[in-house]
Amino acid sequence: MTGRRSVLVGILLALWVAPGAVAAGDPRGEAPLRGLESLPPQDQTRARENLERWKQLTPEERTRVRENFERWKQLSPEERQRVRENLETFRKLPPEGRRQLRENYQRWERLSPDERTRLRERLDRWKKLPSEDKQAIRKRLEEFRKLPPDERQRMRDNLQRRREMPPEERRHSREEFRSRQQQHAPGRPPFRP
């Protein structure tokens, strides 16, 4: 993730891990929590828990948390509110949902800048599609998922070969495919890769 999204995700994770210890400012996490007694009991408990989490972090993790906290201080109130809402949503997810979100984030981080750009462009195109087209695509995806693994792999290989074709050959191939598709399924809307 690049830009504001990665900053917001990093801040979200930092605040979830150790917001109280970051505010204390001690790089080792050993500073006492001054003014703790003036907090309501539930906040005192949370501050102590955060300090314990902070103490368990490696120096590299602490550095990352401090950097994220510095970014947090520079966010507008609206951005901070969005981060808080996202954090609350994340906390309410079941463990499997949180795991999936982390995996998706890690997969995003491994993408090259070009791959990220292409993915953003696809998302923009998806958002602009009429709901009927989205529904048709979802249906086809569900059909694809029901195919045997070897058939899915064959289709992936064909798609990869298509992507590697020169533009003119790809256009010709697409026209042939659409023509065959309409012959076999006349009521089905044309597939648009």
Walk me through what this model shows:
With 193 residues, the chain is an all-alpha fold. It folds into 2 domains: 3-92, no CATH class; 129-184, no CATH class. The chain is built from 10 helices and no strands. It has helices at residues 3-17, 19-24, 41-56, 59-74, 77-92, 95-110, 113-128, 131-146, 149-164, 167-184. Helix 1 (3-17) packs across helix 4 (59-74) and helix 1 crosses helix 5. The model is unreliable at 17-29 (pLDDT under 50).
Highlighted features:
193 residues; 2 domains; mainly alpha
Break the fold down into its secondary structure elements and pairings.
Layout: H1 3-17, H2 19-24, H3 41-56, H4 59-74, H5 77-92, H6 95-110, H7 113-128, H8 131-146, H9 149-164, H10 167-184
Helix pairs in contact: 1-4, 1-5
**Share of helix among residues?**
over 70%
Cα radius of gyration in angstroms: 24 Å
Q: The biggest beta sheet, please?
A: none
**Averaged pLDDT, please?**
82
Can you tell me the number of structural domains?
2
Rounded to the nearest angstrom, the distance between the terminal CA atoms is 25 Å
Given the helix and strand composition, which structural class is it?
mainly alpha
According to DSSP, the number of beta strands is 0
What is the 3D shape?
elongated
The helix tally amounts to 10
Unreliable stretches: 17-29
Name the beta content range: under 5%
Element order, helices and strands? HHHHHHHHHH
